[in-house]
Input
Amino acid sequence: MGLVYEVVHNDDNDIRYVGSTRCTLKERWCRMKAGYKRYTKGYGLEISIYKSFDEYGIENFTMKVLERAHGISKLALRKREQKWILILPCVNKYRAYRTKQQKEEQRKQYILLGKTPMVCTCGNEIHACSKYLHAKTKIHLIHEFNFLMME
Output
């Protein structure tokens, strides 16, 4: 069974994220909260609703079923999700259903974003995609230790 769901702010229905899953609603909500926790620690991927969680607090959001779909493919479920994204005002940045050409273009942009150089707090230049791994390196940990000792 598949579900199309919304994550909506309890006081403002215009702050909404639409998604789809083959899990139960409870399982998907647990995974979303876990993903948000990883994101806040700097090593998880961002979904559009996370900025609203930051602003209003995740405890002020509820997940609700928009549509139940039995016996359909993942692709068909994504198409139904996209239908809801087009109907409802939502914070979704990306299309749920994309053509192969659209997917390839988004993949290229994602790769470029991950290769964007940035300067770590330890002063080393790293790529955004390697931030989490760099945080575990000896040179970074020594810098963090020295920084803490100065306080």
Remarks:
- The chain has two domains: 2-97, 111-150.
